[in-house]
Structure prediction request, 354 residues.
Amino acid sequence: MKVYLAGPDVFLPNTGVAAEKKALVAAAGHIPLYPLDAASPVDAATAGKPEVAAAIFAANVAMIRAADVVLANLTPFRGPSADVGTAWEAGFGHALGKPVFGYSNVAVAFEARTRAILASGGDGMEVEDFGLASDNLMLHFSLAGYFAHQAPAGGRWRDLESFKAALAAVGADWARR
Amino acid sequence: MKVYLAGPDVFLPNTGVAAEKKALVAAAGHIPLYPLDAASPVDAATAGKPEVAAAIFAANVAMIRAADVVLANLTPFRGPSADVGTAWEAGFGHALGKPVFGYSNVAVAFEARTRAILASGGDGMEVEDFGLASDNLMLHFSLAGYFAHQAPAGGRWRDLESFKAALAAVGADWARR
Prediction:
């Protein structure tokens, strides 16, 4: 099975965590598809170059089309919600009929963590309140499975517990097909 | 043409802006599909009820499938990026072959507004820097068109200039098909 690894892990300053995730997928007998493996290196030389971004987009879209499943890191990124690129990929994969599994290193429900970020009094917009664990309802109900584990302080982008739980579910789902 | 109106407008405490957008779509000779028109009312009675959210998800997915085009409000929402539900819908629509047009009431490029939010020193993750106007590259390169207009203070969720520009482009695109 080919597992597309979606998530803001691509923005980590080194590839250590991604390498661990790829190794765990391989150890489970599957093939990891990781965005940065197909794309040109992103560094100071690529800054401000939309053509590099366009090539990454095309490579990622091709990887998702080739994948059997999308395994998405939905840990909140610069706000109460998942990375927007990851959310886009979840919607894209869902429309193609790929099962999308999510995991997060934050175990606080979506409404509560949104309210925490708006603690200074709100922004005049309503807070989505349906008792959902993961995120906005469009993302949430596209998920074939969701696994949250509250990582210890400093572990938000490095802890592997929620990833391992989601990967186990991906494997069990594949075995049933 | 059926135009799906994606965006965090659904979180505005009243439906005034959405009504204006729907009227503009109708005045242009098209049919607006607006999420809250299909869904049950969301109010104090629905709080904490995932089954209400599941019904909204199903209604929105059906609306996007029925639409000819997705017209998405990508104005930054509670962070540097678009609303995650809107990003998901853009990915979903793109996979179905629907043209996705975006508009925003913030005309600052994605990298600059991300850096502004991280002004207190960054979060240890890289900032995506490809000179893109709209957002994360996955969202950006799925767009058939993007229209940003810097709304005056207080107008982020009420100004209609970027919406009108995007709607004009949607109409021109439709006329060419």
